[in-house]
Amino acid sequence: MSSPLTLLLSAHALKTWGARIKAASPSGITFLTAEEALAADSPSEADIAFMTREVTGKSSKDNPTPELKGFEIVLRKSPQLKWLQIHPAGAERPIYRELRSRGVKVTTASGATAVTVAHSTLGALIALNRRFPLLADAQRRHDWEPRLGERSPRDLKGQCAVIVGMGPIGRNIAALLKMLGMSVVGVRRTADAVEPCDRTASYDDLLKVLPEAHWLILCCPVSPVTRGIANAAAFEAMPAGAHLINVARGEIAVETDVIAALQRGHLAGAYLDVFAREPLDPASPLWDMPNVIVSPHTASHSLGQNEAIFDIFLDNLERFRGGIKLRNDVDDIG
Questions:
Q1: How many Cβ atoms from other residues are within 10 Å of residue 135's Cβ?
Q2: Pair 185, 200: CB distance under 8 Å
Q3: Which of the residues 45, 98, 212, 278 is marked catalytic?
Q4: Is 130 a catalytic residue?
């Protein structure tokens, strides 16, 4: 594709990466900011678009910001749009389905944050296992509560983690847990082997492997199969005293069932980065549970994250110009 393209992006993204995008575009490229396009009465002439984190970063799925609403308006009035690159690993927002129905390619940044999310998961797992949240609670109460006898943390070596989702995040988490001497069962669409898991199971067989699970770790995309897969039946199948980690989406777990399992002590603790509604309701009992780590959907955040996402965009821009298959095409990965 030799003709110049018009790229839609935010003014912030243009200021941050404009020169580098132009340098990587020997055939030429024209920039159109979302702010300019929103103010114009005419349709947008964008051929491609890059929706970066500052457009969506302060939004939640239930509370879109003006920046996100404005960008979506421009996308809808871009009749010649052919491709949209987004910054998350998942593409659940209705606008993405709408664009795909128009024939627009939507690509994610899957893989860009896999290491960061895996590190967050590892940190949370160690913190919960070593009872750090309970120690912090005792510190706030000025109580000296040594973890001795039956209160002592269990050794991680030999514990089993069932990881639901074997994309880049799940595989990175599995590798870290294997280094701790834990066993890992991967759960995915099929039971095909995935390194470095000890074995794998399909989503349909999740309940069969959960009796082994000291840790249930959710890092799968939302789909009709995975929505609500972590529910009362799943928790009941796990050993008493097991833990839950959710770095996927809030819809993967039934939040009322999570709360009930925590309240009755069947789940010993949880790290929750995502919720059914975000921000989490201030009245939710999860806030005040000393054995729960509430994270405001930030497991993937790091100073280097935006550059990793930008690298995927540049690679896809070259592929788009060359008519080559795009990375992380939502229609290819389901």
A1: 15
A2: yes
A3: 278
A4: no
Determine if the pTM surpasses 0.85: yes
d(CA 57, CA 308) in angstroms, rounded, equals: 16
Note the residue count of the chain.
Answer: 334
Choose the catalytic residue: 249, 251, 255, 327: 249
Looking at the structure, tell me whether residues 186 and 104 fall in a common domain. Answer: no
How confident is the model over 193-248, as pLDDT tens digits?
999 999 999 999 999 999 999 999 999 999 999 999 999 999 999 999 999 999 99
Please check whether residues 182 and 271 belong to one and the same domain: yes
In 3D, which of 160, 139, 156 has the Cα closest to residue 239? 160
CA dist 49 and 10 (Å) reads: 9
Two tokens, residue 231? 């529910």
Q: Domain tally for the chain? A: 2
Task: Could you list the beta-strand ranges (E) of 112-261.
Answer: 160-164, 183-188, 199-202, 215-218, 242-246
Judge whether 266 counts as a catalytic residue: no
Query: Is 249 a residue of the active site?
Result: yes
Helix, strand and coil percent figures for the chain, each rounded to 5: 40, 20, 40
Say if residue 265 is in the same domain as residue 174.
Answer: yes
Q: What range defines the domain where residue 86 resides?
A: 5-111+303-333
Task: Mark whether 121 and 243 lie in a shared domain.
Answer: yes
Q: What are phi and psi of 315, to 5 degrees?
A: -60, -45
